[in-house]
From TrEMBL:
Organism field: Acyrthosiphon pisum (Pea aphid)
Domain named DDE Tnp4: residues: 30-193
Localization of this protein: Nucleus
Cofactor: a divalent metal cation
Entry's family note: Belongs to the HARBI1 family.
Name the UniProt record assigns to this protein: DDE Tnp4 domain-containing protein
Length: 240
């Protein structure tokens, strides 16, 4: 993803975003965004009925998913687009190239001790930190952990708003061939980065849809992930 020097710069920028309330060791933030598409049952498509229904998310809206990972500058450092809207964020993550590497070869992607922040839809690992599931009995330190994580992770939501606001085509993609949707979305993410590099910026009030299932947490029982989260939780409780 980045050279060691560049990676450390990204981590330092994340630390400067929230001051003492920053979540430590953050390299990026991940989330899924639903992009509205034409209903797959259009006469122009030859897609089997079973495959057509896969594009409907839980709100019964036809969409394709964009999985994005952004840095502190709201630039996409990885994007993976085109999966049907019925897919869960955790499944898309595990099947993406970046997800496979983060799970099997994290040292190739991230600097030592660093991690990416996700919401409760993602698996907990040593390289992907997610909040504690709020069952109404969280300790003060766990609540602070969740608050700091959410505060640092907000960059992915801001990036999606800017992306959709800048490229209005992503509000509804009237593309008949669904295999082309991922190409258009990926191209938009690349152009979004170029705009930021050239200081072509603006404030956007656009909203995006993240189809996280409430209460549907897919936490990995990985010992390293749980141990690291507990250590960070304790570290944040001492700082705050």
């Amino acid at each position: 993803m980045a050279t060691n020097h560049k990676a450390q710069t990204v981590v330092q920028k994340f630390n400067s975003l929230r001051g003492e309330h920053s979540f430590p060791g953050v390299f990026g933030a991940i989330d899924g965004c639903h992009i509205s598409i034409l209903a797959p049952w259009e006469k122009r498509t030859k897609m089997p009925k079973l495959n057509r229904t896969m594009f409907y998310n839980r709100k019964q809206v036809p969409t394709v998913l964009l999985q994005g990972i952004v840095d502190s500058d709201l630039k996409f450092i990885d994007c993976f687009a085109g999966w049907p809207g019925s897919s869960h964020d955790a499944r898309v993550f595990r099947r993406s190239i970046i997800g496979e590497k983060l799970l099997s070869q994290p040292c190739v992607i991230l600097p030592p001790g660093c991690h990416i922040l996700g919401d409760g839809a993602y698996p907990l690992t040593s390289t992907l930190m997610v909040p504690f599931k709020d069952n109404g009995h969280l300790s003060d330190s766990q609540l602070k952990f969740n608050k700091c994580l959410s505060s640092s992770r907000v960059v992915i939501e801001q990036a999606f708003r800017k992306l959709i606001g800048r490229f209005r085509k992503l509000k509804h993609m009237d593309i008949y061939h669904k295999e082309n949707c991922s190409k258009v979305i990926t191209a938009a993410c690349c152009l979004h980065n170029l705009c930021i590099d050239n200081s072509d910026d603006f404030n956007s009030t656009e909203i995006y849809t993240s189809e996280m299932e409430d209460g549907n947490h897919h936490e990995d029982d990985s010992l390293s992930g749980n141990v690291k989260r507990q250590e960070l939780c304790q570290q944040l409780s001492l700082i705050l």
